Amino acid sequence: MENLLVTGGAGFIGGNFVQYMADKYPNYHIYNLDVLTYAGDLTKHQKIENGKNYSFVRLDIADRQAISELFKQIDFTYIVHFAAESHVDRSITEPEIFIRTNVLGTQVLLDAAKRSTIKKFVHVSTDEVYGELDFDPTTFFTETTPLQPSSPYSASKASSDLLVRAYYETYGLPVNITRCSNNYGPYHFPEKLIPLTISRVLNDQKVPVYGDGKNVRDWLHVLDHCSAIDLVLHSGEIGEVYNIGGHNEQTNLEVVRTIIETLGKSHDLIEFVEDRLGHDKRYAIDPTKIEQLGWRPVYDFETGIAQTIDWFMENKEWWQQIISGEYQQYFNRQYARK
């Protein structure tokens, strides 16, 4: 039995990864570690929460003593580290929270991993650590692009990336770093652009768009991201960085308009608002390195966004309980008595 620790497994990407791995590797025992901040949602794991090969552990990754005790109790084979504060707007108003979780929390995990016998520590990062690109469609982020973060969020992620690299160089810890473009798909927390737009359009509410809406993002379906991390976990060369992108560049305004048109609503729902501080112009990833490892995305944006809209329409109860805050009571009902 392989013991897989997934940090941040109650979040959007980590949660999808937990489900993906549970389906693909029934011989793995998956430990989902999450502190359950406002963005942590356990309702997505109802189908597996009582399984013999799944355990939920409520811990703060920055709690050194608690993490140390966990590693004494369980001999982890692999660690995939998603846990992070990730909302850029929140990092602008409360940067200290991001430093504590994303930097100190990662260092605590690295220390615990260093004292263990793990085969691989995969640190899941973001293309935002590279800063921004101009609008030249021939330019892309590669694994050798210098780190030039623009927000407290991306600065905290860049810091954690450097710590992971340092633990590989100094201690020989078997690591990989992955840097992904913007994810979307099922269970996307409703504060982010795509789920926010879908939920607001379905409720005939205004959709805020920063600035002129021309900022460009490379969109990656979350299940494509999960398959890429799986590949890096098992086949990535130790010490290497792998960029994961979807070849799906869209402006924010194009994304919003696509959702509005798909749902048969009026563009009058679009409301341009004051631009965000430090708002990067464009992100775009060259995924050649991971493609050479054998990965290809399954979803183009047209197919993926249609599937995502359908999912949100079919699962209104899920995102409505997120917006209302009811999801935060699920842990108390299901886990507090265990």
From TrEMBL:
Superkingdom of this protein's organism: Bacteria
UniProt keyword list: Lyase, NAD
UniProt cofactor(s): NAD(+)
Entries under SUPFAM superfamilies matching the protein: NAD(P)-binding Rossmann-fold domains (SSF51735)
Enzyme nomenclature, EC number: 4.2.1.46
Enzyme class: lyase
Catalysis: reaction(s): dTDP-alpha-D-glucose = dTDP-4-dehydro-6-deoxy-alpha-D-glucose + H2O
Pfam families on file: GDP_Man_Dehyd
Transmembrane segments: none
Annotated ranges, domain NAD(P)-binding: 5-308
InterPro entries linked to this entry: dTDP_Gluc_deHydtase, NAD(P)-bd_dom, NAD(P)-bd_dom_sf
NCBIfam families, alphabetized: dTDP_gluc_dehyt
Family: Belongs to the NAD(P)-dependent epimerase/dehydratase family. dTDP-glucose dehydratase subfamily.
Listed name of the protein: dTDP-glucose 4,6-dehydratase
Organism: Planococcus kocurii
